[in-house]
Design a protein that fits this description.
It is a single chain. By secondary structure, the chain is mainly alpha-helical. Helices cover about 55% and strands about 10% of the residues. The chain has helices spanning about 10-25, 35-40, 50-65, 85-110; strands at about 30, 65-70, 80-85. The protein has a three-stranded antiparallel β-sheet with strand order 1-3-2. The chain starts with 10 loop residues before the first helix and ends in a 9-residue tail after the last helix.
């Protein structure tokens, strides 16, 4: 099930998953910001702005998870390409495992009887 433009995912959900999803988008090879945003949108994850993504990618660069390379544009200005480093791939695997565990626990909690989790 994906979000529709009329009913976007809550912003908190997007902010919580953006880092992991940006790393995942880079798993297939180097990419640039607009292409990452497009891949996330096409996956039904919502709409993101460069002003949200680029500071995140800068933090990833400082953490050593991505490398940055400027490439000349074919018919326009150059683009900044991001690629995962070995530590970035390790971090992606770690975050992916954590996310899957978290969402499994959350799904189980939400699917439980309505009175579960309520203090009586």
């Amino acid at each position: 099930m994906s979000s529709s433009p009329e009913e976007p995912w809550p912003g908190d959900w997007n902010r919580a998953s953006l880092g992991l999803c940006a790393l995942q988008a880079l798993q297939g090879g180097p990419s640039y910001g607009y292409a990452i945003i497009t891949a996330l949108e096409e996956a039904g994850l919502g709409t993101f702005k460069g002003g949200t993504l680029y500071p995140l990618l800068t933090r990833f660069e400082k953490a050593g998870w991505v490398e940055v390379e400027w490439r000349a544009g074919e018919s326009g200005p150059g683009r900044k390409y991001f690629s995962l480093t070995t530590p970035g791939r390790t971090e992606l695997g770690h975050q992916r495992q954590q996310w899957l565990s978290f969402t499994q626990s959350t799904t189980a909690f939400l699917a439980a009887a309505p009175d579960r989790g309520v203090l009586q």
